[in-house]
Specification:
Layout lengths: L8 E7 L4 E6 L4 E6 L2 E6 L6 E6 L2 E6 L2 E6 L5 E6 L9 E10 L2 E8 L7 E7 L2 E9 L2 E6 L5 E6 L4 E7 L6 E9 L6 E7 L5 E6 L3 E5 L5 E6 L5 E6 L5 E6 L6 H6 L7 E4 L5
Antiparallel strand pairs: 1-2, 2-3, 3-4, 5-6, 6-7, 7-8, 9-10, 10-11, 11-12, 13-14, 14-15, 15-16, 17-18, 18-19, 19-20, 21-22, 22-23
Length: 274
């Protein structure tokens, strides 16, 4: 879509008020904004990994140390909440996340050299953070199930997506159950999004595809794309198009040449089934 290649494109967010598209290159700590037919680039800090919310010129991000507000006008960053101490070090960084309500966020942290079970889910509420679950290695997806206190959260290390049911305060996991299992394939679920009518889309790393599911986890559609490593997706205002981030991280020189769009932002027309 754009003549930009991200080493690890992620954290995509569409602002319905301004019509602008936001995303990050995690490895280079860069924020990109597509608006009015041009792309602006901003340098941010410490492995910012997901755009959680946009309020005019203030962009809420999650990074290595927690949740921050980044001002597009001044370039200044204001810390909203700190990741709890045991995960707030140079060995860890945040990955995906979601804004649940005013001053209420959920995000995942992972080891920069991930191993099974060494990450966690963090709840940030009114500027205070707490660990609500430990044992997830590469937390991704963070899709809120409508009319519930449940989130679809992927552990990409395990190649599985789980349904997490939380208590009314979001501070305790009541139940965790398997929702999608790609363990016996060479594919991995990554980031995803949900439409107003419950269509769930998940980017499949090393799969050349975005898969669509219903709320029960049944696959209902597949959208093939010309890059092996899509990482995340979001819907436009009309919900008839997906914007998809991708990565060239870890690809060989041969594969980078074979799949030259790797790292770009792609679009999928949801009215066309592949």
């Amino acid at each position: 879509m754009f003549n930009i290649r991200n080493e690890l494109g992620e954290g995509i967010f569409f602002d319905k008020i301004s019509g602008a598209l936001f995303w990050l290159d995690i490895n280079l700590s860069r924020l990109f904004i597509f608006s009015n037919d041009k792309v602006d680039k901003y340098q941010v800090t410490k492995h910012a990994s997901a755009v959680l919310f946009v309020n005019g010129k203030i962009i809420t991000l999650v990074n290595e140390n927690g949740i921050i507000n980044f001002c597009l006008v001044t370039g200044k960053m204001c810390q909203i909440s700190q990741t709890p101490a045991q995960y707030n070090s140079s060995a860890y960084r945040a990955n995906d996340g979601i804004k649940l309500d005013n001053d209420l966020y959920m995000y995942g942290v992972m080891g920069k050299n991930p191993i099974r079970g060494n990450g966690a889910l963090i709840l940030s509420k009114n500027g205070e953070s707490e660990v609500v679950f430990e044992g997830v290695a590469i937390p991704n997806t963070f899709i809120k199930v409508p009319k519930s206190n449940s989130l679809l959260i992927t552990d990409s290390f395990e190649q599985k997506t789980f349904m997490f049911d939380f208590d009314s305060s979001w501070s305790k996991v009541i139940c965790k159950k398997e929702w999608l299992n790609l363990k016996n394939t060479n594919k991995t679920p990554d980031g995803g999004c949900i439409s107003k009518n419950g269509r769930i889309f998940i980017a499949i790393w090393d799969g050349f595809e975005i898969l669509e599911f219903d709320l029960d986890g049944n696959k209902v559609n597949k959208f093939e794309i010309p890059v092996p490593r899509p990482t995340n997706c979001t819907l436009n205002a009309k919900e008839d198009q997906l914007f998809v981030t991708s990565a060239y991280e870890g690809l060989s020189d041969y594969d980078r040449k074979k799949y030259p769009l790797s790292g770009s932002i792609l679009t999928i027309d949801l009215n066309i089934q592949c």
